[in-house]
Amino acid sequence: MIKTIGIAELQRRASQVVNEVRSGQAEYEVTSHGGPVGVALVRLPDAHPVGITPEDLMSTPYFTAPAPSAAVRRAQLNAVEAARDAAGRAGT
Predict the structure, then answer these.
(1) d(C-alpha 22, C-alpha 78), whole Å
(2) Number of domains forming the structure of the chain
(3) What is the pTM of this model?
(4) pLDDT of 65-88, one tens digit each?
(5) Minimal CA–CA distance to 44: which of 62, 30, 31?
(6) For residue 91, is it left (φ>0), alpha (ψ between -120 and 50) or beta?
(7) Structural domain range at position 45
(8) DSSP three-state, residue 48
(9) What is the dihedral of CA 70, 71, 76, 78, to 10 degrees?
(10) Helical (H) or strand (E) element with 14
């Protein structure tokens, strides 16, 4: 069963809450002003005891990678094209 915890209480008890989650004693949903804020603290399967890798985090159902904005994608494509031009391989 998932418990709820307010953000202020989580700040005061962060280490204790993380230890409870890590040991499998509890799962938490974080709330702000009485409403959920969309953060769930659950133990990851086979979580590394001193932390998790980015790959572990991205494989959980709680992680959604933000899509880059159109401006960021344009800048990335422009950087790739500039590198190709500088290498003398434009248009290949």
Answers:
(1) 44
(2) 1
(3) 0.47
(4) 667 788 888 998 888 888 887 777
(5) 62
(6) left
(7) 2-65
(8) coil
(9) 110
(10) helix 7-23
